[in-house]
Design goal:
The complex is a heterotrimer of chains A (323), B (311) and C (156). By secondary structure, chain A is of the alpha+beta class. Chain A contains 13 helices and 13 strands. Helices cover 21% and strands 31% of the residues of chain B. Chain A: InterPro entries: HODM_asu-like.
């Protein structure tokens, strides 16, 4: 994507000069005006990186098929997620994307990728990767499906190739609070319990979103626990970099997360769309530069540690707030 | 209530006293999808009643409900029995607190009378996804609603009876021989629900395996009178036995948003500042119940003589 | 802490590992004898394949009302619990008491191998499968019955 367009669509997430975890959930599809433009008007953001991101996902998945995990009982929810998202895409870009019902079969046509597929709902073999694998080849978001039972949410399926420091293969089958076990403060503060209660009560069709952020070394989307040997070198480099070198290497990494209560299956669809912006680009917007600098300077050590930004935090603050 | 403005497309008495209404958008367009076991709250004249959806929930173009005429009821069912094709009807978006548990190895459904309605949707969903399902259905001798549909869908997996002793025997037997991993779903009149949950508890079923859909708030005991103290307006509102806190507040001109009026949807939740609520709803979780810091005035009452609320 | 016996159950399986686990299991067995409910008891050094095969047989034959009670080192208790959950038991049907050694299982995020060793979260262990140095995270998976191990950051 060209730098101007990336900047204009970037979902800058910080709304104050200090940051703590909060139950920052808001209705989906409400556009947010920023210093540079706007984001958030749609559920599934298809941008200029569409083909590139999906090619990257395909490459990662081929090298490590374990990034796709489906516990058998959530199969109906995978189909529900697929059809819900394909319908959404088609409604959003009717000229290029369509889902039609033809003689008991569904026909998906994606002119952006040159993909046509015909399948029957419930026939996992008709689609490469099954319903969830196929969905992951049509949207840039990472996907997690949460099943609701025993008064809790369970992360029972997903396709996650662009994780930030976690592993779906390890986390699959966990309860919502177990998934978030390592996140500091959210348990004692009740932030997580409030969020889960809110999610448990979402009604069919309701859609919300939140943002999350961290700093990451290197421009790769895949910062999963699995791939840490691959990004360790960038991280080590960032720990000693200063000034321009640091600003080119270190990125603000923002996740726009959507939470959708699926209708037919009742499962909760959790979409994670990841955006990266090098500090050098971000610094072109004075308000963002100041705000991120102040947030990083004030951020408590435990949160900074969990976000993985300790090695280059001080240098980033110096770059952003220095004269 | 921001509802769906629908029209009745079919209206037929399926067995004496039970009328099925089929609803659609005036333009015939798609309706919100929903899981099996969902309900809508229908505006029935002056009343609002919750009804289970019996239709399949994936991409529905029609919602179907079955309404039992309750001669002693508050008029909502009689009003619905008069609806005919072409009549408008406003219902809420579907809500669900009774969906099939996807991890279940087997689904054991137990229905009494009109409690069969959510089970119809469960059975359709189970057949569609090839789930192991069994239904035990207690009904009046003359009125086994949907018996033919269920026979066709379930064959031998349906056991039905109108004999109380036989039902108890079938129930006890069924609850003692289910493989680990079975979930139990029950819907019907209060005494039947109590019988099923008590029998299940005695047979060692953990509460997490037992799922209840209760749409019979009218059968709950009237309770004792108490006073609702409204902190913000500094007023006291007397709540008589047999009157709900919500009705008492409305009668006193206090606006509280509400929907299902049966302790299911949570719309009317009010913060409690002092006193101890007597929770009768199906909505709050155990922590909220224990904390006693909020109450659903549509069904819940007070353990203490005075309940102070943030109104 | 000993969670005690779940008196709502109608039949029980009690599995214990290590000497400390056995002492707990004996207490449970005594409390259950008084109720007259059928009790199946098993004791061994650890959650070996043989132990898990025995448990699998019990799970396959169990009806609702059955309860599982586990006592012993964390690694063994978690493995048995993981099998029970995979075979349709729910948390409410399982009681555990961790005692004995601090033996844990660590799952390697890079090769998927599991290493069983005495360790604490925050320590580094070598993956028995791929040899990488792993930092043990305070993050447990009920399915893998293990802690997460990720390549230790060179600079930390």
């Amino acid at each position: 994507m060209n730098p101007e367009s990336r900047l204009a669509r970037f979902p800058f997430p910080l709304r104050a000069d200090t940051y703590r975890y909060s139950t920052n959930i808001e209705p989906a599809r409400v556009p947010v005006r920023t210093e540079t433009g706007e984001w958030g008007g749609v559920l599934l953001d298809v941008d200029d990186d569409y083909a590139a991101d999906l090619a990257e996902r395909k490459r990662i998945l081929k090298a490590d098929p374990g990034r796709l995990q489906v516990l058998p009982h959530v199969r109906p929810a995978c189909w529900d997620a697929l059809l819900t998202c394909l319908r959404e895409l088609a409604a959003q870009r009717p000229d290029e994307l369509s889902l039609r019902c033809e003689g008991g079969e569904l026909a998906w046509r994606n002119d952006l990728l040159g993909v046509c597929a015909r399948f029957r709902e419930g026939d996992d073999d008709a689609l490469p990767g099954g319903p969830l694998g196929f969905l992951g080849s049509q949207i840039q978001d990472d996907i997690v499906l949460l099943d609701q039972r025993e008064g809790a949410l369970w992360a029972d399926a997903g396709l996650v190739t662009f994780a930030s420091g976690w592993s779906l293969r390890f986390d699959v089958g966990m309860r919502f609070d177990e998934v978030h076990g390592p996140v500091p403060r959210v348990h004692e503060d009740g932030v997580l319990a409030r969020a889960e209660r809110f999610l448990l009560r979402l009604r069919p069709g309701q859609e919300y979103r939140r943002t999350n952020w961290s700093l990451a070394a290197g421009g790769r989307l895949d910062h999963s626990a699995e791939s840490s040997p691959e990004w360790a070198a960038d991280r080590a480099r960032a720990a000693t970099a200063r000034g321009r070198e640091l600003a080119a290497l270190v990125h603000l990494r923002v996740e726009v997360q959507h939470l959708v209560r699926l209708g037919a299956s009742g499962a909760l669809l959790f979409l994670i769309r990841t955006y990266l912006l090098p500090l050098a680009e971000l610094a072109r917007v004075p308000a963002w530069r100041l705000r991120l600098g102040r947030v990083l300077a004030e951020l408590p050590d435990d949160i900074a540690g969990y976000k993985g930004l300790t090695p280059f935090r001080d240098a980033a603050v110096e770059y952003l707030l220095g004269s | 209530m921001t509802g769906l403005e629908l029209v009745v497309t079919r209206s037929a008495e399926v067995v004496p006293g039970v009328r099925e209404l089929v609803l659609a958008r005036p333009d015939g367009g798609p309706l919100p999808a929903h899981p099996a076991g969902s309900h809508v709250v229908a505006e029935c004249g002056e009343r609002r009643n919750a009804y289970s959806l019996t239709n399949g929930g994936a991409e529905p173009r029609e919602y179907a409900v079955a309404v039992l005429r309750r001669p002693g009821g508050r008029g909502g069912s009689a009003w619905l029995h008069e609806r005919r094709p072409g009549d408008p009807l406003v219902v809420s978006a579907p809500r669900c607190a009774f969906a099939p548990v996807l991890t279940a190895r087997r689904h054991l459904l137990v229905a009494g009378g009109i409690g069969i309605t959510p089970m119809l949707a469960h059975v359709r969903d189970a057949v569609r996804w090839n789930r192991d399902v069994e239904l035990l259905y207690a009904h009046r001798p003359d009125a086994p609603a949907y018996a033919a549909d269920l026979d066709r869908l379930l064959g031998e997996r349906l056991r039905r009876t109108s004999d109380r002793r036989e039902f108890r025997g079938l129930l006890g037997d069924a609850l003692r021989r289910q493989p680990l991993g079975t979930h139990l779903y029950v819907c019907g009149p209060a005494p039947l629900m109590e019988l099923v949950t008590d029998t299940a508890e005695a047979a060692g079923w953990p509460a997490q395996r037992v799922h209840r859909e209760r749409f019979t708030a009218a059968e709950v005991a009237p309770g004792t009178p108490f006073t609702a103290r409204l902190r913000r307006s500094g007023r006291d509102v007397a709540v008589a036995a047999g009157t709900t806190l919500l009705d008492a507040l409305h009668a006193a001109g206090v606006a509280v948003p509400s929907m299902c009026r049966q302790g299911v949807c949570g719309e009317c939740r009010v913060p409690v500042l002092a006193g101890q609520p007597q929770h009768r709803d199906e909505y709050l979780d155990e922590h909220e119940r224990a904390a006693g810091t909020c109450v659903l005035p549509c069904v819940s009452r007070s353990e203490t003589g005075v309940l102070e609320v943030d109104l | 802490m000993d969670p005690g016996v779940d008196h709502a159950g109608t039949s029980f399986a009690v599995m214990s590992f290590s000497a400390e686990g056995r002492a707990v299991a004996r207490r449970w067995a005594a409390a259950l004898t008084a109720t007259g409910a059928p009790v199946w008891a098993w004791h061994g050094d650890g959650a070996t394949e043989r132990a898990l095969a025995e448990l699998r047989d019990r799970l396959d034959g169990a009806t609702v009302g059955w309860r599982l009670m586990l006592a012993g080192p964390e690694a063994d208790v978690l493995r048995a619990r993981s099998l029970a959950v995979e075979r349709d038991a729910i948390d409410a049907e399982i009681r555990v008491h961790v005692c004995g050694t601090g033996r844990k299982r660590v799952w390697c995020a890079h090769c998927g191998g599991t290493t069983e060793t005495e360790c604490e979260a925050g320590q580094a262990v070598a993956c028995a499968n791929c040899g990488r140095g792993l930092l043990v995270h305070d993050h447990v998976s009920r399915r893998h019955a293990a802690y997460l191990g990720v390549l230790a950051d060179p600079e930390t």
